[in-house]
């Protein structure tokens, strides 16, 4: 692959290799240069940043805005979300980002998350009980998916009967089917109707859950100030983001980690012998094959220079988390899975003020889910040839469509 940053602004790299063999393609790009012109996830031109130091710096650079209102007109086509789902933290800069994050961050402190460990283990054990007698399972549909959706729905107070619908809507948004453009539109409309109805029901009958707490913050006028309140669109968007991101990132992390262990049986055996190492192993799973291949798209509010390349204000910047986490200048022998690696500084969950809000919960769920699975089934193995394991075809996220296993 050529370094298109050096061949003019109109040259673009074909992104097909990033779908077919992403880590090899990213290694070639990283070696060729720090910044490249590609076709982004929406088909529009974008700048792809590949090296660890540049990605880490850019993640915390206040000149790179998440607010798409800073995009050059005609330069960006993202999800066509209605305002009631679009006013979320993934599209915001300070001070709005700071205000909204402050209202919800207490729900995801390490102490609060640790209190959820026993309930999460019960959910994992129930799912494994249902799988045990069959001798085989499709791990994404039967375990890696149901576990985080149950956890996050319980946290928000969402009734169990709605969870299957949410899984279908999420899949339509995560990996849209180009042959069925109406499916994404339907999913967005159904989600908006669902959240609007759920918030109305919680207002009428609050529960002991995070969504009821957020509604109380939205509706509380006792202090006579709007300084820490949510707008109605912000409330709905926050509920959407917590549920969507809480499911998407965790299902992909669990699936990718289990596949990595099945491909490295010596590492799987070592973790079975010493399950206390799982906490550190989860960090290696995040680095080695994390759920987010790209950070949320940024838009420079002024001309910026990254890796010696000038990027004009308003153009799309894609920060490759997957490439940064395999940069050999930061992580020796980066393509080797090593759960005992002395690891710090991976970027799988972000960096700076936009660091993943639910990071403690995602880590705990992955550690609990993987630990319960490998303990229950000591002879766990792939149930199909490795080349039949399918990943989602998107350069944005890194996750499995299915993972057939047996024991």
From TrEMBL:
Gene3D superfamilies: Cytochrome P450 (1.10.630.10). It holds the Pfam family p450. Belongs to the cytochrome P450 family. This is Cytochrome P450.
């Amino acid at each position: 692959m050529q370094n298109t940053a050096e061949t003019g602004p109109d040259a673009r790299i074909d992104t097909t290799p990033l779908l077919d063999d992403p880590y090899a393609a990213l290694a070639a790009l990283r070696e060729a240069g720090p910044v490249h012109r590609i076709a982004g996830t929406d088909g529009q031109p974008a700048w792809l940043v590949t090296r660890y130091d540049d990605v880490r710096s850019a993640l915390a650079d206040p000149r790179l805005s998440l607010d798409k209102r800073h995009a050059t007109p005609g330069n960006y086509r993202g999800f066509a979300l209605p305002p009631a789902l679009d006013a979320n933290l993934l599209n915001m800069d300070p001070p709005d980002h700071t205000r909204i994050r402050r209202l919800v961050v207490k729900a995801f402190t390490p102490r609060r998350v640790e209190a959820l460990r026993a309930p999460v283990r019960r959910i994992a054990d129930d799912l494994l009980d249902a799988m045990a007698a069959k001798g085989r399972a499709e791990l994404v549909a039967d375990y890696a998916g149901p576990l985080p959706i149950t956890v996050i729905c319980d946290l928000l107070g969402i009734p169990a009967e709605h969870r299957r619908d949410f899984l279908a809507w999420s899949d339509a948004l995560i990996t849209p089917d180009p042959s069925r453009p109406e499916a994404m539109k339907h999913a967005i409309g159904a989600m908006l109707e669902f959240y609007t109805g759920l918030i109305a029901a919680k207002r009428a009958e609050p529960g002991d859950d995070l969504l009821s707490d957020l509604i109380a913050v939205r509706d509380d006028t006792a202090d006579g100030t709007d300084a820490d309140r949510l707008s109605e669109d912000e409330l709905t968007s926050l509920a959407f983001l917590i549920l969507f991101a809480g499911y998407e990132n965790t299902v992909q992390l669990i699936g990718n980690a289990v596949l990595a262990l099945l491909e490295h049986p010596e590492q799987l055996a070592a973790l079975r012998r010493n399950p206390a190492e799982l906490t550190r192993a989860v960090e290696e799973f995040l680095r080695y094959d994390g759920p987010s291949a790209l950070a949320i798209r940024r838009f420079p509010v002024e001309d910026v220079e990254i890796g010696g390349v000038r990027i004009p204000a308003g153009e799309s910047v894609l920060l490759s988390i997957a490439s940064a986490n395999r940069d050999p200048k930061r992580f020796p022998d980066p393509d080797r899975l090593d759960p005992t690696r002395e690891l710090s500084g991976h970027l799988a969950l972000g960096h700076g003020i936009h660091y993943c809000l639910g990071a403690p919960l995602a880590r705990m769920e992955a550690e609990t889910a993987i630990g319960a699975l490998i303990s229950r089934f000591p002879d766990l193995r792939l149930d199909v040839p490795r080349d039949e394991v399918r990943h989602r075809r998107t350069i944005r996220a890194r996750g499995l469509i299915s993972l057939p296993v047996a024991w």
